[in-house]
Write a structure and sequence with these properties.
Blueprint: H1 10-20, H2 37-47, H3 55-61, H4 71-82, E1 91-95, E2 104-108, E3 111-115, H5 123-132, E4 138-142, H6 148-151, H7 154-160, E5 163-168, H8 177-188, E6 201-204, E7 207-213, E8 228-233, E9 236-240, H9 246-254, E10 263-265, H10 277-283, E11 287-290, H11 303-311, E12 315-318, H12 319-322, E13 325-329, E14 334-338, E15 355-358, E16 363-365, E17 378-381, H13 384-389, E18 393-394
Parallel strand pairs: 3-4, 4-5, 9-10, 10-11, 11-12, 16-18
Antiparallel strand pairs: 1-2, 1-13, 2-3, 6-7, 7-8, 8-9, 13-14, 15-16, 15-17
Helix pairs in contact: 2-4, 5-7, 7-8
Bound molecules: zinc ion (ZN) (2 copies).
Residues 145, 147, 222-223, 243 line the site of one zinc ion.
């Protein structure tokens, strides 16, 4: 998706053109005549970068015509664009709000896969969710690791839903009642959990799913034993990391896996023990989703992680704020839907390095220079080249 060519089916676009008839391509922020989620992302960026926005782009991105470009415009564009319809054949992934726990439903066409099911008390909620999504059986179930906040609800789910193909779980287990219940539920369906081979793939509808973890061979740490999945649907990709922590992240990098993904399911609920800079640089997601509970006891997500994500300009959704988060992919573009109309964490625009010129001496300086002119004699330049082009010379002491 990085290269970003977006082709949307004509029937799909038709309502939009009707909707937009007479108006300037409202929402078409990049002015290419097609409304895509790229426009929404552009609107999101513009919402934090108004000063550098030219007038036409401002009109185009202001989807609700209130003369301000905000994340609300982006959501409106997203809804108009990919919203329509979670039509069959498309890919959909739901980060179910199970509080301080994790549960993710993946669907492509008729295929369904459930990755974790939250705590024991979330089992019923997840069953209800599946029911409301029209799920009648599950093709695959993945238990990322044996902690209760992932495996706890699986027994309820598997007692209610037949698993038609396979259950995956890491070899490291836990001697807990809830994990025993999960294994009993597997037994009742005559299924033995498969420990996926590192780097192996399975096909899932039109997707490919690759097992990139657990990459630490003999770990005794349950979090680091997490199964990590990379799901690729045409040009879009998703990395689901369970509770994998830094050691596991480094091991995946050492394996030389292509970890790049458009959407990162943030490891271990946003704990600072996961999502290292090094790992984030490999994934380079455009979006992140954090599964965590409101006012949870662990302080998740940790400030270190939200900062790292902001530094990497990742648009971040979180279940404690947004509720259940649904991501739709048409293979080229992504759309996000959330229970709550809470604005995604939009990273600030990159800091523009400013150069300060002296209108009398025609010299320009770094903002840290000791010889800065008085405020009324200043002119600001966004780049060194602009300063030089306007006839200013670099200061000899700060050497900008
Ligand atoms: Zn967890
Ligand atoms: Zn865990």
């Amino acid at each position: 998706m990085k290269k970003y060519i977006v082709i949307i089916l004509c029937f799909f676009m038709l309502p939009l053109f009707v909707l937009c008839a007479g108006a300037v391509q409202i929402g078409d922020a990049d002015g290419n005549g097609i409304l895509t989620s790229a426009d929404a992302r552009l609107a999101l960026r513009h919402s934090v970068d108004l000063e550098n926005l030219d007038a036409d782009a401002l009109i185009a991105a202001d989807a609700d015509n209130d003369n301000a470009v905000t994340a609300a415009d982006a959501r409106l564009i997203l809804r108009e664009v990919v919203g329509l319809e979670r039509f069959a054949g498309d890919f959909r992934i739901d980060f179910i709000d199970v509080g301080q726990a994790k549960s993710i439903l993946v669907q492509n066409g008729d295929m369904t896969m459930l990755v974790d099911a939250g705590n024991v008390q979330d089992g019923e909620l997840v069953c209800d969710y599946l029911y409301h999504c029209g799920v009648t059986s599950l093709d695959f179930v993945v238990c990322t690791h044996a902690h209760e906040d992932h495996a706890g609800g699986l027994a309820d789910v598997m007692n209610a839903y037949t698993v038609t193909q396979a259950v995956f779980a890491p070899s490291l287990t836990a001697d807990t009642a809830n994990y025993k219940n999960f294994r009993d539920a597997c037994k009742a369906q005559k299924l033995t959990p498969i420990h996926p081979t590192l780097g192996s793939t399975i096909s899932f509808g039109d997707c490919e799913i690759e097992f990139l973890g657990p990459a630490l061979a003999d770990t005794t740490d349950l979090n680091d034993s997490s199964i990590v999945l990379k799901i690729t649907y045409e040009d879009t990709s998703f990395l689901l990391t369970g509770d994998a922590e830094t050691a596991s992240e480094y091991a995946m990098i050492d394996e030389g896996f292509d970890l790049s993904a458009d959407v990162l399911d943030v490891g271990h609920h946003g704990s600072s023990s996961s999502t290292s800079y090094v790992f984030l640089r490999q994934v380079m997601p455009e979006f992140a989703v954090i599964s965590c509970g409101t006012d949870n006891d662990y302080g998740h997500p940790h400030e270190e992680v939200t900062s790292r994500l902001a530094d990497a300009r990742v648009i971040t959704y979180r279940t404690d704020k947004h509720g259940t988060i649904q991501v739709i992919s048409n293979g080229k573009a992504l759309a996000f839907y959330t229970d709550n109309d809470f604005e995604a964490d939009i990273p600030d625009p990159p800091i523009v390095k400013q150069y300060i010129g002296n209108i009398n001496s025609k010299k320009f300086h770094l903002p840290t220079c000791g010889n800065l002119p008085a405020e009324h004699n200043r002119i600001y330049f966004a780049s060194r080249d602009t300063a030089i082009a306007q006839g200013y010379a670099p200061c000899g002491s700060c050497k900008p």
